Amino acid sequence: MVTADGRLLTATASENQDLFWGVRGGSGNFGIVTSLEYRLHEVGPVFGGAVFYSAAKAKEVLHFWREFAAESPDELVTQGGSFNLPDGVPVFGVAGCYCGSLSEGEKVLKPLRTLGSPVADAFGPLSYLQLQGMFEPFFPPGRQVYTKSNFFRGLSDEAIDVLVRFVGKSPSPYTFAPFIEHWHGAATRVPVTDMAFPHRQHSWNFLAWSMWLSASETERNKQWTRECWEAVRPFLVSSSYGNYVADQSEAVARENYGPNYDRLVALKNKYDPSNLFRMNHNIKPTSAAPAAASA
After folding, report:
1. Does residue 235 fall inside a structural domain?
2. Phi, psi of 239 (to 5 degrees)
3. Does one domain contain both 69 and 183?
4. Is residue 52 helix, strand or coil?
5. Is residue 253 part of a domain?
6. SS3 2
7. Are 29 and 264 in contact (CB under 8 A)?
8. What is the sign, positive or negative, of the torsion defined by CA atoms of 159, 161, 163, 165?
9. Same-domain check for residues 107 and 219
10. Percent of the chain topping pLDDT 90
């Protein structure tokens, strides 16, 4: 990566370890990454897709999903929420990927797919690439976007009651909200301070991902998104996954990085003391002189 002073550095577990720690979650605050080296894991066909239920069944689905997810094996990840199918039908859907034996995946996911009568069941054997692109048509370029997100302290009955009030109520047919992700498995077993990304201890993440077509609809959609978030907020912690947050401020950055924030500021002081890289979820150096250019 190229740092603010023009150096080309390599960051690994054995070289520039402090920078390697920071870029894994530090959101472009320390330089421009010009190349990456990955350790790949071969993934054959997965059992994945999504099942869609009537929006009116959202409460029932959420209660079932909460108990189902608590027993999820590491091989399974799920996420879901309220949105409209391409034909305009409002649904509450749960998507998932079982990365393991196809027969075992089908068995594990069967209870989720047979909760009453789904509107549609799109689960089945897929290549990993097919699964990754499954929802791309819902996110075409050019749409207006505004997001709010925080982690749940826990997905309580009271939290579910509030979520259900907003299902199918967005002013835009393109919005995904309320939407939640289940986080578990290996990702939650990494110590919080092992890298800059700190979000390891909360099982459910809330998102209001609003999208609309015209700038004239912006204020209406942003207001609805804030209302949804404010209603759910009593059940949320202050911390957020930075990629899901549209609002930017020092306070938000501090909350998002939690116990890692002060260490990130020290890293910023070392590698970008003038805050050249600031058009992001910014980690401000302790004292930044005005930058000549932005990146």
Report:
1. yes
2. -80, 145
3. yes
4. strand
5. no
6. strand
7. yes
8. negative
9. yes
10. 82
Q: Which pTM value belongs to this model?
A: 0.88
* Region label for 25, one of left (φ > 0), alpha (ψ between -120 and 50) or beta (otherwise): left
What type of residue sits at position 62? Answer: L
Residues 163 and 26 in one domain: no
Residue 152 lies in a domain: yes
Domain assignment of residue 285, given as a range: 1-42+259-295
Does the residue 252 lie in any domain? no
Is the domain of 11 the same as that of 156?
Answer: no
C-alpha separations of 36 from 19, 178, 185 in Å: 14, 34, 25
106 contacts 51 by C-beta, under 8 angstroms: no
> Which CATH number belongs to the domain containing residue 140 in this structure?
3.40.462.20
List CB contacts of 204: < 8 A, sequence separation 6 or more: 151, 152, 154, 155, 180, 181, 182, 183
pLDDT digits over 4-46, tens only? 999 999 999 999 999 999 999 987 899 999 999 999 988 989 9
Count of domains for the chain = 2
Per-residue confidence (pLDDT) for residue 116, from 0 to 100: 85
Query: Which residues of the chain are under the pLDDT cut of 70?
Result: 287-295
Q: Are 205 and 181 in contact (CB under 8 A)?
A: yes
